[in-house]
Amino acid sequence: MDVLSILIDWSPYIVTGIAATLGLVLIALGIGVLLGLPMALGQVYGSRPVRWVIGVYVWFFRGLPILVLLFLFWFGIFPGIGLGDVPAFFVGAVVLGLRGAAYQSQIFRGAIQSISEGQMIAARSLGMSRFVAICSVILPQAMRIALPGWSNEYPNMLTDSAVCYAIGVAELLTITSRIVAQTYLTMPIFLVSAGIFILLNYGGIKVLHGLERRIAIPGFGSGAV
Amino acid sequence: MNDNNIVLRVEDIHKSFGNNEVLRGISFDVRRGETKVFIGPSGTGKSTLLRCINQLTVPDRGSVWLDGEEVTNSGARINYFRQKIGMVFQNYYLFDHLTALKNVELALLKVRGMSKSEAREKALIELRQVGLEDWADHYPAELSGGQAQRVSIARALAMDPDVILFDEPTSALDPELTREVLEVMRKLAQQGMTMLVVTHEMGFACSVATEILFMENGVVAEQGTPDLLMHDPRFTRMKNFIGQFDSYRGD
């Protein structure tokens, strides 16, 4: 049997692996934004206790190796709160998301803090509440500034998602190693897997760059002369 | 408070930053349609005074009244008063991510709750007022300093304020752009807009001000019509202040 026919035989299985990997990445990035953005706002505008709690969160999730976090949640926290029979896929996505939120919060914080104070002053001088000013003036600018840095999160998350192999999520690396175990075609199969990772990476980066261009504003944040 | 024409009353405003007492008891009344111009050396608290009026800076002591209602200690109602007290800044502070039109529209939509078409119509009227209707779709980075400042004036005007505070509106502009901004302000004054202006433009002050307040060391040192302060021999301090610059020019 040559490599090609083996790949064709296994292709439905590989597709489910790709789907699982993309599922992990998209859910985790979603959790990362939904938690990371409010955390960034809390760190910039929040009271001292709020800033402290967020600081501890960031310190914790950035401080531990991703595999340690994964095992901690898979063997400890999820069973500990009575969610022991939650699928590994879900646990993996949540852990990647919670960890991503810690990193993303700092990307968003930097972007928010880079907006000049005058923008808030002008908004308040027109009678906007702080909340309206943040939503209508600060965030639309900060998100544009954050996007290039945030784009790093996609390839990071894509490559990090492979650690879910360790808890048995049937994502691309797990599928790859199972095919290898069945066929003993180690290098060819891993090279195909690597090729798929790189293509997924390329596609996502293309989408993000396209988004960057779409929301670009003349003279704002581009630095182009 | 019996004078119905008084739109803004400022009473005994004090403000310190650390040990630096910037404002040491400022009081004045502003009648509807008046243009009050504040002159004085840097660091005498002119800008701080303007910011104390709309509470962007909270004064340590004293009170501000708009149409008989207290602006100081007004809690969340401050957002209502700020609509009625427009402000124009030295560095324009236009919203960098929005076109000129949307800069003017934003507060109409988000604060006044106007519909999109109402807000657009109103914003275009204000841009026309400052001569920038044709620039409605340009972003701040595409505008000259003078145009940007005129957009920010339109943005303040759109809220139909009772009074507009101008905080050194031309200090970041070259003489030509300064002139176009001052022309707009002169027109507003003639139309009866109530204005408080911190500026170093003596020509503007003397020709437009109904009253000049010369500030020094956190107090109003001299106060009167331009004619009085410039020509009455009893007033010397503002003349001395201006005279310093004249001697540099070699007049």
Distance between the termini of chain A: 58 Å
Give the low-confidence spans of chain A. Answer: none
Largest interface: A-B, 21 and 29 residues
**What is the count of β-strands of chain B?**
10
Low-confidence blocks of residues of chain B: none
Quick synopsis:
The complex is a heterodimer of chains A (225) and B (251). Chain A has 225 residues and is an all-alpha fold.
Written description of the protein model:
Chain A starts with a helix and ends in an 11-residue tail after the last helix. The longest helix of chain A has 43 residues. Chain A has a single domain, classed as MetI-like fold (Orthogonal Bundle), CATH 1.10.3720.10. In chain A, α1 crosses α7 and α3 packs across α4. Chain A is 80% helix and 0% strand. By secondary structure, chain A is an all-alpha fold. By secondary structure, chain B is α/β, with parallel strands linked by helices. Chain B has a domain of 175 residues: P-loop containing nucleotide triphosphate hydrolases (Rossmann fold). In chain B, β1 and β2 form a beta hairpin. In chain B, 48% of the residues are buried. The mean pLDDT of chain B is 93. Classes of the chains: A mainly alpha (225), B alpha/beta (251). Chains A and B meet through α5 and α6 of A and α2, α3 and α5 of B.
